[in-house]
Amino acid sequence: MKLKFLKHKWQKLTFNFVLIPVTVIFIIALILNQRLAPILATELREAVLTGSDSLYHADFSKAELHLLEGKVTFYNINMVPDTAIYNKRKLQHLATNNLITLHVKKLILQHVHPFSYYFRHKLRISEIILNEPELNVSYQLNHTQDTVLKDHRTAWQKISKVLHSIQIDHIYLNDVKFKYKDYSGHKLAISTLKEMNISVSDLLIDSLTQTDKSRFSYCKEIVTELNNYSGKTDNGLYDYRIKYLKLSTLTSRLNVVGLQLEPAKSDVFFNKTQSDRVTVAVDSLQLNNFDYLLYHKYRILNASSLQLHNGSVRVSNNPNKSKKDEDEGDAVSTFPNMMVRNTDANLTIDTIHLKNINVEYAEFNNDSKKTGTVLFNNTSGSFYNVTTNKKAIEKNNITRADLSSYFMNRGHLTAQFLFNLTDKDAAFSYKGSLGPFAANKINQASMALAMVKISSGSVKQFNFDIQANSKVFKGNVSLLYNDLKVSLLKADTAHNQLKKQSLMSIFANLFVIKRNNPDAAGVVPRTTYVVYHRPKDSPFFKTVWRTLLEGIKPAVGLDEKSKRATNQRIEEHNQNKKERQIKKAERKKHREERKLEKEQGR
């Protein structure tokens, strides 16, 4: 049947002019689709084999080429290592530390430019999409620095005889299933990640980028994002969670949102370990100038700074520690400089910045049967030269911390810590100053830990300067205050509470407690030189706090000597009272005898 709309000659000519080329192009496309798909398949296999120096092989079940769309699709891609070559390189000390296995259900190449490839020898792809890739990585520390294979050419030098350049605008790995096996420790550590996405921008391999150090593996930027990651520590005592993580190679920045470290319930935790119980929550963490490539290859963590914003750290002293035998270990391992010495990690962070971190230390007192809590609210500051790297420690063996906080959410506290990273006795020092606050605000700690309740008084200033090591803490403590009045407490086990020692409190306030420091205007304030010998089972936080407490007690008249004097006065008072009662009874008896004699005389 004739086409009715082709009535005029010019319409027929136009139709033939359009139809014939389109038909020819369509036929050519069909032919090329059949011919080029196997060629691309061969190219993919060769690219993986050449790029990995024969370590990896790639294969797939099917490939489709849609020339007119500029689209290539591969199905069921598998990239696996050649274990024979890997083991051979291990013997030659040339094997990589990371070994990778990859499976992709579907790989799509969008907007491929085949004419550029065949006529200009440039591979140009706008977009590559990998759907549901399964990535398995195993890590073994085969070497600690870059090794050079016989073929030490760059990627561009390897492909330059066939291709002038490779350019891919975007690569997306969606919904990655990632399993990581780490064989470098004492036992195998396995991590499994889900809800992970990876995007790559501007991958370019040519004569210029082969030496471009601003690119990461020839890419302008690689971004890794991880959502809702959680896990459990090997000992089963802690659960950890990350709400969101992002790593950018362009900015060399690692961002973490919603980091949490949650311990097991108290009874379970303390029955399984002698360690202190720690809870950590940080809203925002940022690691700057993070050398990811160095970490990926050798597990060496180098960064210029770490920023921690808005969070809390809670430390609970283990109440079972007093029961453990001394030969079970020294709690000096909890000192920060000893933790650095004992860790297997290799890290160097120039500066750690804290902002608005609430710190809480809780300790159970066996005498009072109560838990006292010390709070440091809105803590901010910086740690300098945080490193476990031996070469870095040789250059500078001191880690410094400058901190600012609010003690019991009231008095402004500034403190500086200096940790010696090489001293065999874990030497360090701490000094600082605490501003004005109402003295009764420390009752949350003093009632349980010292069995003393502050009834009234105001602290003007508290200064301390302590030199310490694993054996002994020594230094000066100065507490300036006014109108101090206290109540001494004792444990009432029948009612599970602390009970006021009325008589002792009266005597303490009348004869022992020093109401003011200085005692009068113009008088030099009292200072205390404290020497506190650390019990072997006393951890870092507890020893720091106890040393200051030992300096405060004599400053206000609550040291052991003053307590003995108080007890002696009370004993003397009781003895005098008893003697008075005896004399009173004797006088009463004498009066009754005289009365009886008079009645008998009548």
Distance between the termini: 165 Å
Number of helices: 12
Give the CA-based shape: elongated
Mean pLDDT value: 83
Number of extended strands: 23
Radius of gyration: 38 Å
Q: In percent terms, what proportion of residues is strand?
A: 35-45%
Low-confidence stretches: 1-6, 8-35, 323-327
Task: Report the sheet with the most strands, covering strand number, pairing sense and barrel closure.
Answer: 23 strands, mixed
What percentage of residues falls in helices of 4 or more residues?
25-40%
Main structural class: alpha+beta
Quick gist of this model?
The protein has 602 residues and is an alpha+beta fold.
Describe the 3D structure:
By secondary structure, this protein is of the alpha+beta class. The protein is built from 12 helices and 23 strands. The protein has helices at residues 9-51, 83-91, 114-120, 155-159, 266-272, 292-298, 336-342, 390-395, 443-449, 502-512, 540-556, 560-601; strands spanning 56-59, 62-66, 71-81, 98-112, 122-131, 134-139, 165-182, 189-205, 219-232, 238-248, 253-263, 277-288, 300-316, 346-365, 370-387, 398-407, 411-420, 428-434, 437-438, 452-468, 472-492, 497-500, 528-533. It has a 23-stranded mixed β-sheet that branches. Helix 10 (502-512) packs across helix 12 (560-601). The longest helix has 43 residues, at 9-51.
Properties at a glance:
602 residues; 23-stranded mixed beta sheet; 28% helix; disordered N terminus
Helix and strand topology:
Blueprint (H helix, E strand, L loop, with lengths): L8 H43 L4 E4 L2 E5 L4 E11 L1 H9 L6 E15 L1 H7 L1 E10 L2 E6 L15 H5 L5 E18 L6 E17 L13 E14 L5 E11 L4 E11 L2 H7 L4 E12 L3 H7 L1 E17 L19 H7 L3 E20 L4 E18 L2 H6 L2 E10 L3 E10 L7 E7 L2 E2 L4 H7 L2 E17 L3 E21 L4 E4 L1 H11 L15 E6 L6 H17 L3 H42 L1
Parallel strand pairs: 5-7, 6-7, 13-14
Antiparallel strand pairs: 1-3, 2-3, 3-4, 4-5, 4-6, 7-8, 8-9, 9-10, 10-11, 11-12, 12-13, 14-15, 15-16, 16-17, 17-18, 18-20, 19-20, 20-21, 21-22, 21-23
Helix pairs in contact: 10-12
